[in-house]
Structures are given as structure tokens and as C-alpha cells.
TrEMBL record:
Localization, UniProt: Cytoplasm, Cytosol
Keyword Hydrolase set for record: no
Reactions it catalyzes: (R)-5-phosphomevalonate + ATP = (R)-5-diphosphomevalonate + ADP
Keyword field contains Nucleus: no
Protein name: Phosphomevalonate kinase
Annotated EC: 2.7.4.2
Annotated GO biological process: cholesterol biosynthetic process; isopentenyl diphosphate biosynthetic process, mevalonate pathway
Binding site for ATP: K18, R19, K20, S21, G22, K23, D24, R142, N171, Q181
Length: 193
């Protein structure tokens, strides 16, 4: 950590937002617009699920799908992930960025202040915080259902306060409106390349 190094990214977009706000969708749109030689999408939940599956004898691949299998383990994965982060706040972040060589990184699932702080410490001004929002009505249309212990817990609400977002993307399903917002964000990103 510390000063800028050779292989450091020029822009690190930390996407956060509620379940079904469209973080993965927006991450994919950004990557599509920049090209995968310029932009890579990273997930903190990837290494989390991989380690969790290893330690608990579970099927890592099935934890990656939007499946009932994942939902069955979500609460315990949250608990386990919090325990790991308490011991070492960079535990999942370090693994997630390993091998990322593109100049632009999009982290599609930032959930906690400790994650934002880790990226700011490591990459300084390259970091841009991006909030993806959608109304509850939109999220319900995308099959979101409120789950106590998940939607009212740190996993979903950890960044509701404490971060001033550099960009807020409203994603309620109008393709043209989303495109215009993404182009404004991408102008900022491209100016950093
Ligand atoms: N602007 C959009 N246009 C069409 N479908 C969308 C849009 N945004 C999100 N979706 C769809 O809504 C669902 C939830 O989006 P996703 O990106 O997985 O949300 P999150 O990662 O925030 O939980 C997915 O099926 C996704 O394809
Ligand atoms: C334990 C988790 O990492 C599970 C995340 O799984 P996904 O990243 O698949 O999440 P959704 O898009 O919300 O379904 C949450 C956490 O608090 O770390």
C-alpha cells in the first residue's frame, strides 16, 4: 500500500447500492463501453464465496449463481465475512485485485466502509465512489423481496452513510437515461487514462 506503483490502476470505480439496484448490470455496461482490455470487473464477494465454500465444504460455483442455494447461506456468509474482515480488513480486497492488469477497475459490490477505506489507502485519488440507485418498485420488478437480517443489516446498509459519492447513477430501467449518465461518468474515467 502507499504511493502509486507501476501497475496501479488509473481509475477504480467502487460501485455500491442495494440488492437489485443493478450494480452488476451497470458494471457490465461500463466494461462494454470501455472494452475488456481497458476495464476489468472485480467482485469482493468472489474471494469471499470461494474461501467460505472451501472452509464449509460447499459448492463455490453454486454460490455464484442467483440461486436459492446462495440465499440459503447468505446470512452465514455475511457473519463469516464480517469475522474475517474484523481480523483483517483487506482480506477480501487484496484477493479481489490480484492479477488485475487493466487501467480501469470496476468493483461491482462494495458494501462496507472498511472496503472503501482500503481502496482509498491503496489507490488514493484513482478511487471514484459510484452509487447505483433504483426505487423499491423497480427492485421488486427485478424480484427483490425484503429479507430481515439482510436488507436492514450492514451488508446492505453499510454505505448508506459515511461516504460522499462522486457519482450517483439512477437505474430505473430507462435505457437512454442510463446511457447518458454512464457517458458522463465515462468522460471522467477517460480523462484519467
Ligand atoms: N437498466 C437495466 N435494464 C435492464 N435490466 C436491468 C437493468 N438494471 C438491472 N437489470 C436487471 O435487473 C436484475 C438485477 O440487477 P443486478 O445488476 O444483478 O443487481 P445487483 O447486482 O445490484 O443486485 C438483473 O436481472 C439485471 O439484468
Ligand atoms: C456474503 C455476501 O458477500 C453475499 C453477496 O452475494 P452477491 O454478491 O451474489 O450479492 P447479491 O447481488 O446481493 O445477491 C454479502 C456480504 O455481506 O459480504
Amino acid at each position: 500500500m502507499g504511493g502509486a506503483g507501476m501497475g496501479d490502476p488509473r481509475a477504480v470505480l467502487l460501485l455500491s447500492g442495494k440488492r437489485k439496484s443493478g450494480k452488476d448490470f451497470v458494471a457490465a455496461e461500463i466494461q462494454k463501453r470501455l472494452g475488456s482490455d481497458v476495464c476489468t470487473v472485480l467482485r469482493l464477494s468472489g474471494p469471499l464465496k470461494e474461501r467460505y465454500a472451501q472452509e464449509h465444504g460447499l459448492d463455490f460455483q453454486r454460490l455464484l449463481d442467483a440461486s436459492a442455494y446462495k440465499e440459503q447461506y447468505r446470512q452465514d456468509m455475511i457473519r463469516w465475512g464480517e469475522e474475517k474482515r474484523r481480523a483483517d480488513p483487506g482480506f477480501f480486497c487484496r484477493t479481489a485485485v490480484q492479477g488485475a492488469a487493466q487501467p480501469v477497475w470496476v468493483v461491482s459490490d462494495t458494501r462496507r466502509l472498511s472496503d472503501v477505506e482500503w481502496f482509498r489507502d491503496a489507490y488514493g485519488d484513482a478511487v471514484l465512489t459510484v452509487r447505483v440507485t433504483a426505487t423499491e418498485e423497480t427492485r421488486r420488478r427485478r424480484s427483490w423481496v425484503f429479507v430481515a437480517g439482510v436488507d436492514d443489516a450492514e451488508s446492505e446498509c453499510g454505505l448508506d452513510q459515511g461516504v460522499t459519492f462522486d457519482w450517483v447513477i439512477t437505474n430505473d430501467g430507462d435505457g437512454a437515461a442510463l446511457g447518458a449518465q454512464l457517458e458522463a461518468l465515462l468522460q471522467d474515467v477517460r480523462s484519467r487514462l
